[in-house]
Amino acid sequence: MTIPSIQDADKAFTAKDYQTAESIYLDILNIDINNYNNENRSKSEKIIELQEKSIINLSKIYNINEDESKLIELINKSKIIMSGSFAKSKTSKIIKILLDVLENSFNWKNNSLTNSLNNSIKITNECIQWSIDQKRTFLQQSLKIRLSLLYYKNKNYMESLKIINPLIKEFKKLDDKTSLVDVQLLECKNYFQLKNFIKSRASLTSARTSANSIYCPSSIQAELDLMSGILNAQDKDFKTAYSYFYEAFENYQLHETKNDLNNEIEDNKSIKVLKYMILCKIMIERIDEINPLLKQKSCQKFINKSDIEAMKSVSNSYKNRSLKDLENSLKIYSKELTLDPIIRSHLSDLYDSLFQKNLLKLIEPYSCIEINHICSMIGLPKDVIESKLSNMILDKIIFGVLDQGNGCLIIYDEPIKDESYDYSLEIIKQMSNAVDLLYEKASTLS
Predict the structure, then answer these.
(1) In what order do the strands lie in the sheet with 408-411?
(2) Would you name any one GO CC term (predicted)?
């Protein structure tokens, strides 16, 4: 039996004659390896290599042609071909490549992220069952990690955690710290999305502890620092959060690959972290430090990105204490600001803070000002303005009173605190202590 020439298929693939290339690659996959196992071992190994290359190149063809049905058919066919004849390492490699192509199919014109994730979840479940039947434990575990990540991306957090919890026990028994870090980090992300911040911090602490005992790649270290920054930002500790975000940004810059798609993914992560760094600077009111940050060499290639422009627009609004400018920024850069869950979670606080600063800016020159005049300058309803002013008075941010009968705000001078009372109380306290000591000494003498 003559073996189809893979060189002809490669030439057709290079010449973009995908139909001819596909036909030859499929002929190679149809070769029954069992016919050669008994005759010639070296020949059977050569056929396995040809079939491996054929599967990978077919996945590339189906990716280029955006043919989902043929890609799924290839995955199912590959499982039959690889059963028993392929080495475990090669099997894991091929399955990973095929599932990666299927997962990234949301980039295709006639496909969506939801459809891509649903198909990936379905096929990954089938591959897990196949790995159990084939008794390939390590492949099964890696596929389960992938499945839990797919559930996380699909916002099905409880399903993701159902897979993670048994995996953590397994990896602890095997002392597989590398896989344990990945799973604990994913557990941290799931709990964060479920708003269970206590368990999220506990998972992150466990992941950091596991990572300290092994060599941790820069990409994983970046993910750990990113989650640390997000959790600190959640606690309003933006100074500490900024330092973690900076570390994450540096680690993402270190992680470069030969794959353009992977580099693009890393760049997107770097942009996201840079957005969080700018957010921290805004929240701690260090607006002047944003431009020097963006002038750093590592930030140069991102400064013209729409996400960074959005954050710069927000920082300028905050610097000018202009609520109207912030609202305009939210309209212009709606996608960049409101679709990011971390940015969105802090926007309400930022809005309230800017609202407060804007009111202080407007009433600063007056001792009495009409509320209607404030409404006309800010462009918000009267009830919203009155509610905010009353809260600011109660919080002692401004000293004054709302005269609702006349529809105005009367502002008082900030009362000067007389420190002589505090000093007097401190003197009395010290004298009381001295009298108590003298009484104790007198008691011992008698």
Answers:
(1) 368-370, 408-411, 400-403
(2) proteasome regulatory particle, lid subcomplex
CATH entry, 356-445, from 3.90.550.10, 3.40.50.880, 1.20.950.20, 1.10.10.10? 1.10.10.10
Residue 401's beta-bridge partner residues? 410
Domain coordinates in residue numbering, the chain: 356-445
| Over residues 425-431, mean pLDDT | 88
Q: Where are the alpha helices (DSSP H) in 66-176?
A: 68-82, 88-103, 113-133, 137-153, 157-174
Instruction: State the pLDDT at residue 161.
Output: 94
Span between the terminal Cα atoms of the chain, in Å: 119
How much is the mean pLDDT over the chain?
85
Integer Cα distance of 428 and 430 in angstroms: 6
C-beta atoms surrounding 69 within 10 Å: 8
Strand partners for 409: 369, 402
pLDDT tens, position by position, 241-265: 999 999 999 888 876 544 455 567 7
Is the pLDDT at 405 greater than 90? The verdict is no
CA 380 to chain centre: 34
At residue 411, the 3 state secondary structure works out as: strand
Q: Is 259 helix (H, G, I), strand (E, B) or coil?
A: coil
- Nearest in space to 31 (alpha carbons), one of 73, 72, 81: 81
What's the rounded Cα separation, in Å, for the pair 141 and 157?
A: 19
- Determine how many CB atoms are found less than 10 A away from the CB of residue 409: 27
Between the alpha carbon of residue 172 and those of residues 145, 149, 183, 202, the distances in Å are 15, 19, 11, 16
- In angstroms, the CA 312 to CA 318 distance is 10
CA 391 – CA 398 distance, rounded (Å): 9
Highest mean pLDDT among 120-124, 287-291, 330-334: 120-124
What are the angstrom distances between the C-alpha of 21 and each of 8, 33, 326?
A: 8, 21, 55
Query: What is the per-residue pLDDT across 259-275, written as a single tens digit (0 to 9) for each?
Result: 455 567 777 888 889 99
User: Residue 65 and residue 84: Cα distance in Å, rounded?
Assistant: 31
Q: Residue 1 has what DSSP assignment?
A: -
